[in-house]
Amino acid sequence: MTSHSADLPRPDVAVVGLGRPFTWLAGGWRDLWRRPAASLFYGLAVALCGGAILLTTARLPYLFTAAVSGFLLVAPLLATGLYDLSRGYERGEPVSLGESMQAWRRKPAAAGPVGGADHDPDGNRLRHGAGRPRRRLALARARQLARLSRSRTLIPSRP
Predict the structure, then answer these.
(1) pLDDT, tens digit, 9 for 90 and up, residues 102-145
(2) Nearest Cα residue to 42 out of 131, 89, 125, 103
(3) Measured between alpha carbons, how far is 105 from 75 in angstroms, rounded to an integer?
(4) What are the domain boundaries of the chain?
């Protein structure tokens, strides 16, 4: 049996040490105590949204799964202001709850791939076609996988 994945280029993957998540948690804890009201506001907003979903769909299991899935997509958007506060702390900039609530407007990339498809991670607008090489590579990989799936069986059959 030959490996079809050997034909595809391997992506670069960052190696994260086992203790690194604890560093992130410690940073979050420090951020919480720099501006407790702002941090707790965002925590409360996300908790209330989750609670509203639970109360609304608790007796409707067919809607509950869809609502929770949607919440998993929307919750990071709700937290963009919290990310903005943290970024301001790291850079030593003055931060406020009001300004952090407008973060998604100042930096559309903070809204994720839906809101910032034409912006880099710093919120700068990309010039037309700047994302094409990556898109072309993704399309080439998808075409290659499609050809492999049509030409060969990906799951070997038993004799």
Answers:
(1) 877 776 654 555 444 444 545 555 554 444 555 666 666 667 66
(2) 103
(3) 17
(4) 19-127
